[in-house]
Automatic annotation (TrEMBL):
One of its GO terms (molecular function) is methylmalonate-semialdehyde dehydrogenase (acylating, NAD) activity. Pfam families: Aldedh. Keywords: NAD, Oxidoreductase. InterPro entries: Ald_DH/histidinol_DH (IPR016161), Ald_DH_C (IPR016163), Ald_DH_CS_CYS (IPR016160), Ald_DH_N (IPR016162), Aldehyde_DH_dom (IPR015590), MeMal-semiAld_DH (IPR010061). It comes from Cribrihabitans marinus. This is methylmalonate-semialdehyde dehydrogenase (CoA acylating).
Length: 499
């Protein structure tokens, strides 16, 4: 049994709390490693190391810091296969999907190589007589990030790349379900030339998170995970005076207009609904066809495609569409919600219950499900299922479809499929959701734009990556400077314009 470690001050360090969590291979159901769960003393140690290392890193010029990220990109590409394999083994997603996970993180690292440009600051010459005014963006100091299981490479990189590019030290508390890739990323950053102690990984659960939330030296917390935990971390972190951004759960609707290309819409729904076993915050979990005729045509297109889906372990090769879900508990939760859908009167058009894979009977596989005639009061509509379950809610008009998505408590992503530019434009303008796709089912913005939902899908003002990340990981200092050409006598007591 492999015992994983923390990564502190540039070395793998065994856990000392005596508490561990099981890390599963979701395809076989076997426990493949034990991950230590940090105590508050271990968080204290990481913060002490980070606070000692950060001032020199913060004073290193930005292009030298960026060069570390440049080298890191090379190393990610060099080790892509190794990272993807480790990721699939603990998460369960297919190898191509695991590579996408690394790639979408890598793209943010590439973007952060431009940090010197983003950190330039502002300067006003002669803001008043003999007075110059300038603003600079300075690092916060020690920052922390708490990440979910579903993107164990991408989301840590979305946080630590900009934080470190800005001159901060970063403590990552990854998901205890798949901690190996985050540990590998920390090693690679050091191989790329990052000084010891600037990126550390502390494994753990609520105890470690609470220690982060209450540590006076930690200046900022980035969180991605489920909404109840996002709300808890946002509330507690803010109450403790930290800068906090938290990204939560989702229930993403895809509106299918009567004029949509139905093959295209069905293909999009298959990838966005069932890819990664539905364990994506940008997965489409609700299809909203407009009109019964559209709904019937869409269901007719979906059913044969769903029946053809290949579910299997990542080791089975490229023709597997999706793998197991992450834990037995996740599987049980999905099964419970599917049963509630049946009990509450939705029509289970494709029934994935009782799915079993020969040779992998103990794996956490879930068959694909398709519900029709789902209504807003049902639990399968209200709750995030995070599994391969697509619900269809029939809307009678475009306005009904729009209101449905707008009234849902989550607001991460959404999409509309139509050939009507006017409808698409109206949808994009009026919808109260952060990321919108027009004939694009998973509209994840690229690294140089920002990523973030609205409503109960995000807490805080700034999004992830893009220009917002440089605002989140720095604070502004504005200097007003006057070099005397002859100081006037006497103080000035009035708060006045500089004219
Ligand atoms: P989770 O909320 O269970 O865990 C996320 C992190 O919080 C983990 O590091 C975990 O150790 C920690 N945590 C768990 N329980 C805690 C507690 N009681 N107190 C303090 N910390 C705790 O989420 P998950 O299951 O790992 O990830 C799936 C969720 O993440 C889904 O809801 C998904 O929609 C969401 N997600 C959102 C985004 C986004 O950008 N909005 C992206 C990816 C995932």
């Amino acid at each position: 049994m492999q015992e994983l470690t923390h990564y502190l001050g540039g070395a793998h360090v065994n856990g000392t709390s005596g508490r561990f969590a099981d890390v599963f291979n979701p395809a076989t159901g076997e426990v493949q490693a034990k991950v230590p769960l940090a105590s508050s003393e271990e968080i204290d140690k990481a913060v002490e190391i980070a606070a000692t290392a950060q001032p020199a890193w913060g004073a290193t010029n930005p292009q030298r810091r960026a060069r570390v990220l440049m080298k890191f990109v090379d190393l990610l590409n060099r080790d892509m296969d190794k990272l993807a394999e480790a990721l699939s083994r603990e998460h369960g997603k297919t190898l191509p999907d695991a590579k996408g996970d690394v790639q979408r993180g890598l793209e943010v690292v590439e973007y952060c190589i431009g940090a010197p440009q983003m950190l330039k600051g502002e300067f006003t010459d002669s803001a008043g007589p003999g007075i110059d005014m300038y603003s600079m963006r300075q690092p916060l100091g020690v920052c922390a990030g708490i990440t979910p299981f579903n993107f164990p490479a991408m989301i840590p990189m979305w946080m630590f790349a900009p934080a470190i590019a800005c001159g901060n030290a970063f403590i990552l508390k990854p998901s205890e379900r798949d901690p190996s890739v985050p540990l590998m990323l920390a090693e690679l950053m050091e191989e790329a030339g990052l000084p010891k102690g600037i990126l550390q990984v502390v494994n753990g659960d609520k105890a470690a998170v609470d220690a982060i939330l209450h540590h006076p030296v930690i200046q900022s917390i980035g969180f991605v995970g489920s909404t109840p935990i996002a709300e808890y971390i946002y509330g507690t972190g803010c109450a403790n005076g930290k800068r906090v951004q938290c990204f939560g759960g989702a229930k993403n609707h895809m509106i299918v207009m009567p004029d949509a290309d139905m093959d295209q819409a069905a293909d999009a729904l298959i990838g966005a609904g069932y890819g990664a076993a539905g364990e994506r915050c940008m997965a489409i979990s609700v299809a909203v066809p407009v009109g019964d005729e559209t709904a019937d045509r869409l269901i007719d297109k979906l059913v044969p495609r769903i029946e053809k889906l290949k579910v299997g372990p990542y080791t089975a090769g490229d023709d597997v569409d999706y793998g197991p879900v992450v834990t037995a508990a996740a599987k049980a939760n999905i099964e419970r919600l599917v049963q509630s859908g049946v009990d509450q009167g939705a029509k289970l058009v494709v029934d994935g219950r009782g799915f079993s894979l020969q040779g992998y009977e103990d794996g956490f596989f879930v068959g694909p499900h398709l519900f029709d005639h789902v209504t807003p009061e049902m639990d399968i509509y209200k709750k995030e299922i995070f599994g391969p379950v697509l619900s269809t809610v029939r809307a009678q008009t475009y306005e009904d479809a729009l209101s449905l998505a707008m009234d849902h408590e989550y607001g991460n992503g959404t999409a509309i499929f139509t050939r009507d530019g006017d409808a698409a434009r109206d949808f994009a303008n009026r919808i109260n959701i952060g990321m919108v796709g027009i004939n694009v089912p998973i509209p994840v913005p690229l690294a140089y734009h920002t990523f973030g939902g609205w409503k109960k899908s995000a807490f805080g003002d700034l999004n992830q990556h893009g220009p917002d990340a440089f605002k989140f990981y720095t604070r502004t200092k504005t200097i007003t400077s006057r070099w005397p050409s002859g100081i006037k006598e006497g103080g000035e007591f009035n708060f006045k314009a500089m004219d």
